[in-house]
Specification:
406 residues, alpha+beta, Molybdenum Cofactor Biosythetic Enzyme, Chain A, Molybdopterin biosynthesis moea protein, domain 2, Molybdopterin biosynthesis moeA protein, domain 3, 4 domains, 6-stranded mixed β-sheet, 6 helices, 28 strands, 17% helix, 33% strand, elongated, binds adenosine monophosphate, binds magnesium ion
Length: 406
Amino acid sequence: MMLTVAQAFEHLLATVAPCELSEVPLEHSLGLCLGRDVTSPCDSPPFDKSAMDGYAVRSGDLANGSAVLRVVEVITAGRVPSRTIAAGEAAQIMTGAPLPTGADLVIKVEETQRNGDLVLIATEHGKAESNVIRRGTSVQKGDRVLSAGLTLNGSRIGALAELGQSTVLVRRRPRVAILATGDELVPVGDVPGPGQIRNSNAVMLAAQIESAGGIVISLGIARDDRDDLFTKIQQGLQSDLFVLSGGVSAGTLDLIPSLLQEAGVKEVFHKVEMKPGKPIWFGIRAPVPQTDSKICLVFGLPGNPVSSLVCCELFVRTAIRRFMGIEPATPQSISAILEHEHTTYLDRPIYHPATLVWRDQQPMVSLVKWHGSADLCGTVAANAMVLLPSKARCYQVGDRVETLLW
Ligand code: AMP
Ligand code: MG
């Protein structure tokens, strides 16, 4: 029975589990998902400090907004004050330097005039605590700062560094093997002979998989030959995910589904009601007893380039995100405004390559001129795809359509 796209996603999410947790150096954690909550082992900032370059003074000395104070030391960032500030005294202080005891505010240098040992202050900002950041203002020891499940980006990695985490517990990236299959394929650098074409899918899928977070292992091209395929399938099954292109449709040399099953991969689904990409095959190889083999998730993508592209965007990306613990794993669509008329007749949902631009803060989308699943060059202007549900329909300018950004 053919699945709908929604059912295929359900089966996928029920089959793919988040991977085990592992510790990685903080500088290698970008894009990874935090494995457990992080509580702070310390106060941050760790000491009372100045937020400005200026003078640390006592608010009591500034009762009427002005004062002439004696400068008793200079405190730069990284130094510690050597003495307490007494009445009538000030310390010149730099941003980030510890506030000396006795002082309870900092006057910006712009509101002062220096004359030898003396500083003349005239300010309307003489209240206690001005320009001072107290210890623990940002975070206190024991506070939960980051929650499990957050994807690490610059600010979160920086915050972990501030708290002293030089390593971090995350879910790792999957290793994803890619195998292109087909007697007609030649490497991209070769000139195709009669009946031959270049293997464009492998590099395309590699780019998509890397952008989704996977680590690509390229297995080259397998011929439509049982022995060659079987050997390379065994190699591919060593990875966390294994993506094959070609050989899953109804041709006499479409050997992939039967060979995968012979290799111990259990079919989860074959064929999804969509265009392009209908013949997609998905299965799982459970760990083999008495070996060190692990679970392998296997995708047989139809060889037509745009079918491979769309199936990778929808399903392989979802599996990678799920493996890495990133939620939501499934593609998130936005409702965009169609910029032109369009008529569909098909009885299957179509994922149509499209260009989305923002105009006056509105998402405006137009379908690109495209000749179907073999027309990869027709997709190069696209940065998204529009889902046209399976009904004959005349779309009007201004209609809302479900759009998935690539
Ligand atoms: P298949 O799914 O093997 O029946 O292939 C469907 C179409 O996609 C055929 O026209 C193939 O030549 C083409 N095709 C298959 N694999 C690739 C590939 N790796 N790169 C580009 N086109 C391919
Ligand atoms: Mg083929």
